[in-house]
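Review box. Two proteins, two foldings.
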Amino acid sequence: MKRYTQLTLNERENLFNMRNQNYTFLEIGKILGRRGSTISREYKRNLHSSSELGYLPDTANILAKGRKARHGTKISRYPHLKQLISARMIEDRYSPEMIAGSLRGSEVSISTEAIYQYIYSKEGQKQKLYQHLMRARPKRNLYYGRKTRSDYGIKDRISITQRPIIQQGEFGHFEADLTFVKNSKKINLLTIAERKTGYLMAVLNDSKESENIAIKLIEKLVNVPRKYRKTITFDNGREFVMHNKLKEVIGINTYFCHPGSPWEKPYVENSHALLHRFIPKKTDAKTLTQEKVKNAIIKLNNLPRKRFGFKTPAQMFANEKFYQPDALRA
């Protein structure tokens, strides 16, 4: 069933004009895609205090907003939502979208936008809830560019434009990248995301030398049956110059994004933002261990995702035919 929403100012203006042309409430409702009872209630509730002026759209809009303000937001009417939002964000690392999705069908649901408004309200700012968002921005809608990088002359580099079309629901297409933390330009996390399931693998490296990266990629992907090792997509970092080794050893085809186009491998890019909820960028690289990385990946793969109807990547991966409990270990 479609949720009720208040009339917009534009709808109120149309209501005003059509009433002046002697349209009935039922006729107006059909034109506006509303019930006739909704139009009738709107008209009667928002009549101007002067009977001579009757219904005026601007006045009706002000009156409606005034009633909404007196009622307060849903979060103010249900204080337990504040504790739930804080706990889910701080302890469970849920995003606002994940919180809203997990509450669907419950006694008190809430929209993603309402959660964002609470995060950036005075109360939310006081708790610094924004620090637990993917990009931890103190203000909304701040965007930052990334520097364009060349292709570094990678031998036998095949552009993403030549990658076969990936069919919807097709397992076996991967994206890989490196991400770093504080105090190190060498220690890194090599991440591999499977596109269909969103499942992420990661390994802690003490070097970003291309030979080391190629070996680690092979060690991770060899656990996937040969017929499911279809493609893997990289950016143009020099750490991937030995990409041919993957095709030689495990038979997976390699492709590269256009220079300066990280959005062409969105699954691993978005996974980095989630991963840094559990391993913040400010983490001292010297304190990282493989066990800490493994625990972070397990938590990440058990976060509900909107695109899966709020199932988790772990659940989606477990549905694959070849799945075994130890396959693609974190």
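Next protein.
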Amino acid sequence: MKYGKLSAGTVLNILLVLVFLTPAHLAAQQYQVLYSFPGTPDGGGAYAGVAFDKKGDLYGTTSGGGAYQYGTVYKLKPQPSGQWSEKLLHSFSNGDPDGQEPQAGVVFDPEGNLYGMTPLGGVNHSGTVFQMTPGADGWTFNLIYTFCSQPNCSDGGVPWGNLVLDKAGNLYGTAFNVFELIPGPDGWTETVLHDFCQQPCNDGYLPFSGVILDAKGNLYGTTEKGGRYGWGTVFKVRHMPDGTWKERILHNFPSFSGDGVEPGLGHVVLDGAGNLYGSTFAGGTHRCGNSSCGTVFKLTAQPNGHWKETILHEFKKISSGYGPTGGLTLDKAGNLYGTTIGGGNQCDCGVIYKLVPNPDGTWTYTVLHNFSGSDGAQPEANLILDDNGNLYGTTVTGGPGGAGVVFKITP
């Protein structure tokens, strides 16, 4: 299983950085590698972010590595020394009926059970949803749903984005559709809430990012392709009074010159006023190599029922990062945080950035960290915040072990 692809020039730059990187430089950073993946028999290739349990331990998945080289579920526990220890909770294998090569992270219910998805494996090799329950003898793996188990795969398949859990214990996600999984005495039952048509498709296509929930139980997400112009959408799936669900497109990319295109793998985020924030992998008016650099956007509901998009930031040059695939994280002060898969002033390995709102409506962009290869490369997942305002995330490649890292940074 490959963890990512770096060009020959990038590899050379990483080696140069390793040679000239000094302890003084490292000490100046508010950045810490909590764990470095070495690959098989350990994990490798962390496309997914991490999640905290109630004790402050971190959990996540890797797309590769493990006992059978096809991905893992892992736990990181802080130690009194300040280091973090890792434990593999589950390893996936090739053709595994339980799933393989997870790209999505995990989510916890109030009882401490964790849930996740795989895009491959399962009975029909179209992905699975799983649950892991803690016990005195360790964690027990339970397969709760196999995709493409209905005729013509009408229940969806190949899920990439994270799951989200509501207060009633129901799970929601995307698998070429938007689905709900409801627990019952005889297992879990899937309901397709919205089925995206195949491209060309005006209501969106390829909903890789997963969905988020608002206080009313409505779901929001993005599609990488489709929509009116073919370059992706932001959508809402409303929970109607009669119990049905109805999809509505809030924005079609690109709706104007300089708009973003192709929303990335990371999910959107809602603020307290109901505004949506997200990022696009490409688009904007600036070029970074062979592609446009990407954008950060805001969607605001209007009195007439439409949603207005505002571009908060256009990525402008390779040295300050480009290609934001990981979505956004919002803190209590209204600041936004995210990552780019490329750029930076080290080795084209990506950056961590912060956007601060100004009184005049503009936003100030700051690079918090340039990945150097030795401390990780290619961050693709959403960041998370702890109660003290520290950020945690992952990278697909890089680090001392070469197969990605889990990191912490204090903005």
